Amino acid sequence: MKTLDELYQQMLKRAAEGKPVGVDGDPKLIDCLAHPDDHPLIWRVKPCLCPPDEPHHCQEACDWGAITSGPDGIAIDDSQCVGCQACVDACKLDTLKTRKDIIPVVQELHDYDGPIYAMVAPAVSGQFGPDITMGKLRTAFKRLGFTGMLEVAVFADILTLKEALEFDKNINSEDQFQLTSCCCPMWIAMIKKLYHQLLPNVPGSVSPMIAGGRTVKALHPKAKTVFIGPCLAKKAERKEPDLVGAVDYVLTYQELRDLFSVTNIDLASLPEDNLPHASEAGISYAYAGGVSEAVTETVHQLNPDRQVDIKTRKADGVPACKAMINDILAGNRDGNFFEGMGCMGGCVGGPRAIIKKEEGKANVQAYGKQAAYKTPMENPYVIELLKKLGFPTVEEFLERSHLYDRKFD
Ligand code: SF4
Ligand code: SF4
């Protein structure tokens, strides 16, 4: 019987050639690959072999209570799963696999008659090779059939302004504090599920991914949106009830690399296709500490004479995030702006990045240095985008539009 990976390669190649993706093999695995939305985020690809009366490593690894076990092995409750991948890593028998969404995307690129936009996460710099620039990637996406490629860092710019304005409005005494970052679904899930009492300290903002999807759909109602990043948790975020509809597909850099490979696209030889892009601050969302730097700089630009200065503290990786939250709850705050990222190093350390996190961070920082603008306050492309949405200034957009708002309950 063919493995999931063998079926994946065969079906992806057929999809890229515009052929029907039906192949011989296990019908359940084929259905997972062809219709991932009908299946959970984590796929059980073979029977569980752990004895029922012994602890299951996957269940022990899941901090979110998403796994139950019974006589037929384990079951995963998709509504509780945040996509941290701890269970997949914990299963020594290779029984669990993470979802792949690229086959339906390739079929859409062949069949859909409306626009399809690729939205790349800020960690993308250098993921496909040291010489593969943003301009070459944009050309590659168009060759694959996408209408265009957007840098999600531009939406990180707008959200930086939103977070900075919220900080300036809400944090005016030593006992007040704000938790960010809206960009990491694992961090937000941690607060929602495990530390509910801190939700009032989290500004109600969507992530840059959701902001990007909503903006594209506001400007092009027939468009489909495909986010591409290093993250699995984004695949779960896309389906959260209050966010559903903004992003049609979430792919990983590894899935995109597989598509470049089966279509024989030689990225290095492609011409540049450049557009104005994000500020250095928006690009820095890709690594741990970047959001804090971006918001700090912007708060200082917005209101240089604040009585209560912004004092940041950050944590990356689930254990460090939990330790930081426990400190806050115990009264050892030592800060008033707290940034949490679910992965070590931030998104450059995401589970589906292609290169090492240190290399990823260095590439992102080098790309950020080339940006024409340091913060979103200086970035005319942000203003231009908001004008297209009908708002002359960022302040007016944030006051009158609810496009990027989120209500936590
Ligand atoms: S991916 Fe994470 S949250 Fe989902 S079932 Fe596995 S361990 Fe639990
Ligand atoms: S830090 Fe990890 S879980 Fe959080 S958004 Fe980035 S890649 Fe995803």
TrEMBL record:
Protein name per UniProt: 4Fe-4S binding domain protein
Superkingdom of origin: Bacteria
Source species of the chain: Megasphaera elsdenii DSM 20460
Domain 4Fe-4S ferredoxin-type: 72-101
